[in-house]
Specification:
The chain is an alpha/beta fold. The chain contains eleven helices and 13 strands. α5 packs across α7. This is D-2-hydroxyacid dehydrogenase.
Length: about 350
């Protein structure tokens, strides 16, 4: 009987100051090394795989090895991959995967919470409570209002399901039109967004940051929205021209907004957004629940088990599109390196 071919232990880097919990099974089958940003460039050439645990890092483009070297697989502990789409990685043969599956429902719940809070004026109630003011008011119903959700991926779909459960009428906008979608019915094409925008009571941005979506929500977009509409962003900060959003709030074009993402994070203390009328500033926490770090580690550990045994990886990013397509076929996974490779 032929003896199975021996394999060397793969070297897996974790971009983090300390090893995350939940990676014991990975460590049992890999040379698992945590590296801070300062050591990343020195360690990357010899790495077989990279876990970008500090997903807000800006260090990867400068540290990426030249000449076609570097890890054959990069996984990020985030849903968005815009920070990984620098030319050297995008144009390489390296597979990129994300942490799809962890964030969808928590973000959808956060969006639903903001819709209810804005409609019921919770902020006004808390403010009056602090001033010991008893002032009866009427608020709005959310049932039968109309929402448009931009982003046809799993986060946008979870938002649609959750808002529909509250009685809202909801349309979903993706990259291209799909009729008869088994989950949401019709997915509208990106080209239809402007028409839907003009009718919406609620506009929810849950799309990835791409060349098409950067600066999408500008003065023209806010002017197209119906007066008194509300805007919620759980996508990426650069999709919104913040000075234009501020003007729309100050002039009463929008009745309110909730932002979980910003162009600069943390939001500077001198940003005028802190004092914008009817705006909730959330510190990029809509997806972060008490178990989220364990859940992120579990996604990577599962993909690592697939990777080292040559099975297809989950959540493979289409690097040309900049996200994981909803109906994409899973490509073959790279296998762990063989002895002497």
């Amino acid at each position: 009987m032929t003896k199975p071919r021996s394999r060397r232990v793969p070297r897996v880097l974790v971009l983090a100051d300390r090893r995350p919990d939940g990676l014991d099974e990975v460590a049992a089958h890999a040379d698992l090394v945590c590296v801070p940003e300062a050591r990343l460039a020195a360690e990357l050439p010899a790495a077989d795989a990279l876990l970008v645990w500090e997903f807000g890092t800006e260090a990867l483009p400068a540290a990426w090895p030249g000449g076609g070297g570097g890890p054959r697989w990069v996984h990020t502990a985030s849903a968005g991959v815009d920070r990984l789409m620098f030319p050297a990685l995008r144009d390489s043969d390296t597979l990129v995967t994300n942490s799809r599956g962890v964030f969808e429902q928590p973000i959808a719940e956060w969006v639903a919470g903001q819709v209810i809070a804005l409609a019921k004026d919770f902020a006004g109630t808390y403010e009056r409570q602090r001033g010991r003011v008893w002032q009866h008011r009427v608020t709005e119903r959310v049932a039968d209002t109309y929402a448009v959700v931009l982003g046809g991926g799993p986060i946008g779909r979870a938002v649609v399901r959750t808002l529909r459960a509250l009685g809202l009428r909801v349309d979903l906008v993706g990259r291209s039109r799909r009729d008869g979608d088994p989950e949401v019915g019709t997915v509208h094409a990106f080209g239809e967004f402007g028409e839907l925008l003009a009718r919406a009571d609620w506009v929810v941005c849950a799309a990835p940051l791409t060349a098409e979506t950067e600066d999408l929500f500008d003065a023209a977009a806010f002017a197209r929205m119906k007066r008194g509409a509300r805007f919620v962003n759980v996508g990426r900060g650069p999709m919104v021209v913040e000075k234009d959003l501020l003007a729309a709030l100050e002039h009463g074009r929008l009745a309110g907004a909730a932002l979980d993402v910003f162009r600069q994070e943390p939001l500077p203390a001198d940003s005028p957004l802190w004092d914008a009328p009817n705006l909730l500033v959330s510190p990029h926490m809509s997806a972060d629940t008490v178990s989220w770090l364990d859940d992120l580690a579990a996604v990577f550990a599962d993909n690592f088990a697939r990777w080292r045994t040559g099975r297809p990886l989950r959540n493979v990013v289409d690097k040309k599109l900049g996200y994981v397509p909803v109906a994409a076929a899973e490509p073959s996974a790279p296998t762990a390196p063989e002895e002497g490779a």
